[in-house]
Write a structure and sequence with these properties.
- The chain is mostly beta strands.
- It has strands at residues 45-52, 62-69, 76-79, 94-97, 105-114, 120-129, 144-149, 157-163, 175-181, 186-193, 198-204, 217-225, 228-236.
Length: 238
């Protein structure tokens, strides 16, 4: 009913005299709820729902649950995020998927293209992630800062790297990934801990230690431990 705010109650208005919808045996219905999230919001979004029916038929008469939208949505990114095309022109949009932090199962979202006025093109995306049943526990032979994807990015990017097997994992020094601005000033520490040998990734959401969004520009990220150091550039575009 286009009500906004917290604790919103949405009524399903059907064709009955009381203004409610109804279903007969073996029938189904679909309710669509649109959720707009402010660009300054951070954290997971938990949507609680409760569907209340009448007292006829078999139970359950009340169905409830929650839907959690995890932030940031790191498994999909789109580049470029904005652009201009005129009549008769075409443009390509790169869509990148990253299943590194996903559990096996189905993950869904919408890519929404807004023309700047009142028209939107909604492209549904479904990603099916299968578990890796392989017994191949290959450990990287070298340590490498692979890079970040996407790059340029807005507002989220994933930094990937490998860590080789250490002779003594218990005494191995911690791994650190630190973000700097182009002047060399520290922006944020993403990782500062011991890691097992293998493939790793970490997400940067374009915010500093105080969780404030940083400005557009070139940033540096540095991977270090006692025996390894590497630095790369990335571009944040807003």
């Amino acid at each position: 009913d286009e009500t906004t705010g917290e604790n919103v109650l949405i009524n399903w208005h059907g064709s009955t005299g009381l203004g409610y919808g109804y279903l007969h045996a073996f029938q189904t219905a679909v309710a669509e709820v649109s959720v707009d999230i402010s660009s300054i919001f951070s954290g997971n979004v938990v949507l609680s729902y409760e569907i209340i029916g009448d007292e006829y038929g078999e139970e359950p008469h009340v169905v409830e649950g929650t839907i959690t939208l995890h932030y940031p949505l790191g498994w999909i990114s789109v580049y470029p995020p904005v652009g201009i095309i005129t009549g008769g022109e075409t443009d390509e949009i790169d869509v990148t998927f990253d299943t590194g932090e996903l559990d096996p199962g189905t993950h869904e979202c919408n890519i929404i293209i807004n023309d700047g006025s009142d028209y939107e093109t909604v492209i549904p995306v479904t990603l099916n992630v299968q578990s890796n049943e392989s017994n191949d526990n290959t450990i990287p032979l070298t340590t490498e800062l692979i890079g970040n994807f996407p790059n340029p990015f807005n507002p989220v990017t994933t930094i990937q790297f490998t860590a080789e097997d250490a002779e003594n994992a218990e005494t191995c020094p911690p791994w650190r990934i630190i973000i700097y601005n182009i002047k060399g000033q520290k922006i944020k520490t993403l990782i500062d801990k011991k890691l097992d040998a293998g493939y790793h990734s970490v997400i940067w959401d374009g915010k500093n230690e105080e969780q404030c969004p940083v400005a557009s520009g070139v940033y540096l990220y540095k991977l270090t431990n006692e025996k390894y150091s590497s630095i790369r550039k990335m571009l944040l575009m807003k």
